Fold this sequence. Notes:
The chain is mainly α and about 60 residues long. The protein contains 2 helices and no strands. The protein is about 35% helix and about 0% strand. The radius of gyration is 15 Å and the shape is flat. The model has no long low-confidence stretch (mean pLDDT about 80).
Amino acid sequence: MTLGDMTPPDSTPERELLVWEHQQLKESLARGLAQSAAGETVDLGDFTQCVGVVNGPA
Length: 58
């Protein structure tokens, strides 16, 4: 089963519906999860020091 084969349950939080409503985002997420499961990721470290740098304080 893939994300494309699934439908969101009635209890899906509104903040998560974005993934279900946008096919390109759903496909990108599925690729990322598959890459992670296959160990095809690179640890880029901790990005917490970047919080607020682009968009101002959180």
